[in-house]
Amino acid sequence: MRHRSRTAGGITGGALAGTLLASTLAMAPSAVATPALAAPQVTEIPPGAGTHGYPYDAVPTTASFPGAPTINLASYGYAEREFTMAGTTSIYRQSGPWSSSGRWGVSVAQSNVPYRTRLLVRYPTDPAKFNGTVPRSCPPGMPTSASRPRRAA
Fold first, then answer.
1. Mean pLDDT of 26-37
2. Residue from 109, 60, 104, 99 nearest 80 by CA
């Protein structure tokens, strides 16, 4: 199976780039100079690829059992596409005490660490209906920043 590699463009590329930039800026510590990293390689996974013929956690378009709910995204003006994203990043370590203020010192522990992740993107097919907000979600059971336990001061 061959996956197409491409430069992300259009509304999907904007959503991917916006999510990546917002995530990077939100997580990058302001007190540490981050090394310049190359842009990630984004590769579209063709529809119908994979063991089941659909992405994990995709909106169900056919019932998996009689009476199961389905959603026709196209009828609501949306599309769904799956991508992989790979590149290099830095791993940070704690530098000094961490308090409940959320202003924590960190330093680069290791740089140029390879990563690969999967993106499931849902977006309006009409670019005029895209308001610029890109929600980011985690799979069920994965901790988010709001559910992580806080360190004692």
1. 50
2. 60
